[in-house]
Amino acid sequence: DAGITQSPRYKITETGRQVTLMCHQTWSHSYMFWYRQDLGHGLRLIYYSAAADITDKGEVPDGYVVSRSKTENFPLTLESATRSQTSVYFCASRDLSYEQYFGPGTRLTVT
Amino acid sequence: GQQVMQIPQYQHVQEGEDFTTYCNSSTTLSNIQWYKQRPGGHPVFLIQLVKSGEVKKQKRLTFQFGEAKKNSSLHITATQTTDVGTYFCAGYIGGSNYKLTFGKGTLLTVNP
Q1: Residue B108 has pLDDT above 90, yes or no
Q2: Which of B6, B11, B46, B108 could form a disulfide with B34 if both were Cys (CB 3.0 to 4.6 A apart)?
Q3: Cβ of B10 under 8 Å from any chain A Cβ?
Q4: By the 8 A CB rule, do A67 and A53 touch?
């Protein structure tokens, strides 16, 4: 009963490198989301997906790319990492009752 | 910009004292949700309120949704050290049923 998992849990990368954060859910939820959490800003939506092959921008999408070829996976790619993308990233999925289930998070540091 | 405001930002209480956090939206919400995030953890869903004026209780936690569906509150009676964490409200704004907008949260610390 894994639910929703994220990998890696911790990542240090250099400015300019590409990095992909993985998210996997076992519930077959249609909706999946990526948030970043920063001190003073709370949780901000980066991208979301309503189903496989359907994605859309959230509040802070610049510098990020997502894909969703399978219902259970929703990877987030930072094409060229910047220091401002140092953050904690949470993936979430949603069932029909609108409540969201969050993964454990990935703490990303860009040096 | 942020359309769901939450106050206070921080609250420190002695164990046994009550705690309340307030959430206000500039627009009408179809529903409001509350989440709790323990230090170092991830947000965990607590409850969803849908109806105008709705009040729900979970043991020592009482949740209210305003009559105009623009504000909400979470009240904890007789806090315990296990209540420590950040409490977030979140709502679907602008008719969206998939873009959840979160308040910035209230960090509660409890002195034993």
Answers
A1: yes
A2: B46
A3: no
A4: no
